[in-house]
Amino acid sequence: MDQYTFSDNLKKIAFGLMGVGVIALIVAFLGMGDDAHGSTRLWSNILINGFFFFAIAAAATFFLAIQHAAEAGWATVLKRIFEAVGSYMPVGSIFLIIVFIGASLHMNHIYHWMDADAVAHDPILEKKSAYLNLPFWWIRTLAYIGGWIWFLNTMKKLSRQEDEIGGTDIHFKNQRLSAIFLVFFGYTSSSAAWDWIMSIDAHWFSTLFGWYVFSGMWISAMIAITLIVLYLKGQGYLEKVNEYHLQDLGKWMFAISCLWTRSEEHTSELQSPDHLVCRLLLEK
């Protein structure tokens, strides 16, 4: 089995860039002071960047589950790529949780509904408080993140056992597990978008917002997966991957880009995650 190994130069570049990012983040926090606008902008940037990359990993896990559930033979040589992209979820969740903890402790004011005084003087927020309240919101958030990561790790574990043991028992077990995950993800991916993004502006709502975010997650994941496959193929890895596999990835990208475009076409007043955060910044 091919195993990609980062070269020393690539490791130095990667760790160097990560170091620059950490330093820039620390400087931004230290220089924030009492600037409310700067604080909101910084926390919002962390939220959007954290959600974007976390969502790619979550959608890669969803796509992996589709292959298991459908017994798709074409993706067998690519499933380790799907698993690798999905494995970023635990890391990506850290950035989201940091923002959520900061919001819960009123270190940032991204989520207006978390302010009890604001809810008390706002009839709309008060009516939504049965759903938008901290205990219930945190229970849902931990269920989303914990559930998705558990399903991914279990699918990966079963996949490796299948390689070592063989037979069909583990294969069908992974197929059943993946089918359950697809139902779970279908509901929770939408409600996570409501909780983490749409509730930034709790006065506004859209029944199609979860679908819009989901389609964006999926196309972003397919693009990331395709770029990784092309890079590894160019480096001499994935020798079993041929032009037909690349063509299939291209078809998926095209199909899901049509899905994403279609969802935007039917929601002319729909606000994207970036648009919601920009509105929040302007109002602050």
Overall description:
By secondary structure, the chain is mostly helical. The chain is built from 11 helices and no strands. It has helices at residues 8-30, 36-70, 79-86, 89-104, 116-120, 123-128, 134-165, 169-196, 209-234, 243-265, 273-283. Helix 2 (36-70) packs antiparallel against helix 8 (169-196) and helix 7 (134-165) packs antiparallel against helix 8 (169-196). The radius of gyration is 21 Å and the shape is globular. The protein starts with 7 loop residues before the first helix and ends with a helix. The mean pLDDT is 87.
TL;DR of this structure?
The chain has 284 residues and is mainly alpha-helical. Helices cover 75% and strands 0% of the residues. Helix 2 packs antiparallel against helix 11 and helix 7 (134-165) runs antiparallel to helix 8 (169-196).
Total beta-strand segments: 0
In the predicted model, the low-confidence regions spanning at least 5 consecutive residues are none
Rg, Å, rounded: 21 Å
Q: Hey, roughly how much beta strand do the residues contain?
A: under 5%
The N- and C-terminal alpha carbons lie at a distance of 53 Å
- Supply the number of helical segments: 11
Query: What share of residues is helical?
Result: over 70%
Quickly give the structural class: mainly alpha
Shape: globular
Secondary-structure element pattern, one letter each: HHHHHHHHHHH
Largest sheet: none
Nearest-integer average pLDDT: 87
